[in-house]
């Protein structure tokens, strides 16, 4: 029986824990908040308080490193902590993984790692990234830190724009001026993000990089209009002028080739909560 440890029971990590538990997979996870810890435990999910400041701090967090699979889901908080702090966190975390019994790791990254410029073809997982051309140097350094000289299987998942729940695109641009409406999106619904992580664990898809992006890429403007029609959010008050060649698209074909099926392949059909 697999035992899965999730570092970061947040917006993706907690639904993942619930989903795995419903599949009768043994789960333990971490949160930095004592208040949230109590709420999670009331759901019957085994959890510990664990923080990295950037060195590890908490009580009983060693249990996180006694699993078959470790999911690392701690995105960089560049606005509040800075890139160096995040990389220091990962350095300590990587050291703990190396000293543990963990032999399989999923590292949650982002499609923000790809160059910001548009290309004729979609960005795929084998696109050659460097510090000179990547869209986010912190993410690239983080992935490299997890990859280097390891004695465990590693799969990296680069999620696109995470939507669903209370994350509603139209809410963020309601009434705003000069909004980009002419470019297509690289979104993924939270249910499918959880589904991809579960799929990797259940099917032992290791030592691969996957983009987690819905296969259909509608225009931003169409999504805002759908959110307006269905949920009443005001439309943007004005849109940017459309320029040719401004579509930066991310390919999600590799995960589809494994047999994974999206619950929400089209972001126009995403379900939300208010």
CATH architectural label: 3-Layer(aba) Sandwich
* Radius of gyration using CA atoms only: 19 Å
Can you tell me the CATH topology?
A: Rossmann fold
Number of helices: 8
**Arithmetic mean pLDDT:** 95
Structural class: alpha/beta
Poorly predicted ranges: none
Shape: globular
Q: Spell out the CATH superfamily.
A: NAD(P)-binding Rossmann-like Domain
Widest sheet: strand order? 4-3-2-1-5-6-7-10
Distance between the termini: 37 Å
**Assembly type:** single chain
How many β-strands, per DSSP? Answer: 10
Provide the β-strand percentage band: 15-25%
Major β-sheet profile: 8 strands, mixed
**SSE succession:** EHEHEEEHEHEEHEHEHH
Describe, in short, the structure shown.
This protein has 274 residues and is α/β, with parallel strands linked by helices. 30% of the residues lie in helices and 18% in strands. It has one domain (3-168, 188-218, 246-267): NAD(P)-binding Rossmann-like Domain (Rossmann fold, 3-Layer(aba) Sandwich), CATH 3.40.50.720.
